[in-house]
Design brief:
Blueprint (H helix, E strand, L loop, with lengths): L1 H14 L3 E6 L5 E4 L10 E4 L11 H9 L2 E5 L5 H12 L4 E5 L3 H11 L6 E4 L2 E4 L3 H11 L18
Parallel strand pairs: 4-5
Antiparallel strand pairs: 1-2, 1-3, 4-6, 6-7
Pfam families: DUF4124, Glutaredoxin
InterPro entries: DUF4124 (IPR025392), Glutaredoxin (IPR002109), Thioredoxin-like_sf (IPR036249)
Keywords: Signal
């Protein structure tokens, strides 16, 4: 009995470090396995002891964030409208990065994106919006497939992009 208990503990402990592989087979089906894919098939590898921060996100949000990443452009002196923009994005549970404009090249990037250096500005995938207009932000996020409300337990996003 004691040997059985020790064996169970060893198996449970070793599974925390097991790798899982995910790939598409020749028929287009998703395969998840603890063995590597055959041949030169590319696979996504996850180890049991590492958790991605996006793992807690619903599939629809992960997919939208992957296909249509969101960037909010702000400046240090943008207070009220930038806060409203952040609150709207967090209220919908949208994972986003925030780019605080401080250098001339940052302003040039925004000018190329929306036509001038106006904050807040939002980029959703390849689409962008100049200024804060809630209906425009909602429209861009709806088209990208983001949820209309934040999922229960979601954490605020944002943070400054480098």
């Amino acid at each position: 009995m004691r040997h059985f208990l020790v064996l169970c503990l060893l198996l449970a402990g070793s599974s925390a470090f097991a790798e899982t592989y995910r790939w598409l087979d020749s028929a287009g089906r998703v395969v998840i396995s603890d063995t590597p894919p055959p041949g030169k098939t590319k696979a996504i590898v996850k180890t049991g002891d590492s958790a991605e921060s996006s793992d807690a996100l619903p599939y629809a949000v992960k997919k939208a964030a992957e296909d249509f990443p969101v960037t909010l452009y702000t400046t240090p002196d943008c207070v009220s409208e930038c806060k409203q923009a952040r609150d709207l994005l967090n209220g919908r549970g949208v994972p986003f990065s925030e780019k605080m404009l401080q250098k001339a090249e940052d302003f040039a990037e925004l000018k190329q994106l929306v036509g001038d250096a106006f904050v807040p500005s939002l980029k959703v995938g390849k689409q962008s919006s100049r200024g804060f207009e809630a209906s425009t932000y909602h429209n861009l996020l709806d088209l990208a497939g983001y949820p209309k409300t934040a999922p229960y337990g979601s954490k605020p996003s944002g943070g400054l992009a480098k």
